[in-house]
Design goal:
Length: 337
Amino acid sequence: MKAVGLYKYLPIEAKESFLDVTVETPKASGHDILVQIGAISVNPVDTKLRAPKNEVEEKARILGWDAVGIVTEIGDAVELFQVGDAVYYAGDVTRSGSYAEFQLVDEHLVGAKPANLTMEEAAAMPLTLITAWEALFDRIRINPDADAGKSLLIINGSGGVGSIATQLAVWAGLEVITTASRHETVTWSKSQGATHVISHRHPLLPQLKTLGFDGVDYILCLHNTDAYWDAMQEIILPQGHICSIVELQNPVSMSLIKDKSVTVSYEFMFTRSKYNTPDKVRQHDILTKSAQLFETGALKSTLNQTLTPINATTIKEAHRILESGKSIGKLVVKGFD
């Protein structure tokens, strides 16, 4: 089968940062399904895993953890899907990825593609959707009924996770404030449902106070936790919750966190698959529930750009766009030659 792989970890401008390769088509067994890929989305995790380092792969490494496609083969233990089903998923970071014509994925990490979304619209969603859902409802443990009316600050609201997190928080009944600075990112954040948008280029608390907030109940940090740590300690209300997807790089003071009895957690959407947790089917459930929300119009795809076809040249361009730091929403690559 055709695939896009790498042997060396190089800057994206390097000629061999990605190569068109031919590899053996895998076979499904156990709980795996084999999916013929129709479209994929490129995410920051892809660029981080490709980032320059000294390792050299003996076999081509295939990245990519967002896909939509058709099930072509199922393992003997599969119960959730049949051949011919249209599916979407983010998969498992420890396994071969979606930059390929076919991919094996554990059925427990897969959902039926939302019927009302195009192939490209569906491919844009799984990784960011699961990340946002887990952060809001599994880590912070927001209850859409009991917590309606509470406030959430999303730092970096116009990115892939921030966009769908905004929609999910609005669906849950929260008042959502996001950060953005450029006209196009402010406009995008508002289009996703943000009640207020403040600038990350200026101190956050004074802007919140101007809007009538002395603090917020929840914070979802999606960019540079170190840079925002002190501000988040100030902004979070007593007994609030801060969740981040970006790990701290340096020691930080926890004095206000302790004084306010604030909960701090991390979200990494590959935890369940990487550690084969007993509840990994939760991701199937999240994708299934979300498909219903897409189909009723409660959620919409965050697709903002589509490239074609899936080959080394196009994947390089997708990584270049993401590494520019100016990407809004989600970027999808569709179809092999």
